[in-house]
Amino acid sequence: MSRPKLLILDEPSMGLSPLFVKEIFSVIKKLKEDGVTILLVEQNAKMALSIADYAYVIETGKITLEGPAQEL
Question: What pLDDT, on a 0 to 100 scale, did the predictor assign at position 67?
Fold first, then answer.
């Protein structure tokens, strides 16, 4: 299996049970710790911000907030 430098994920938790969502984000966090750059589109802001370094919040197609995840 390859070791990507960039992983693009679009709503990886959509339609999953809370147990699977927790597992998916655990895997994403591990990949980040292993040095993989991750571009994540996610409606679950709390989970996304818990692993993000930097974030953009988009509402109706416009960026309404951006900055370090810990500040959002």
Answer: 97
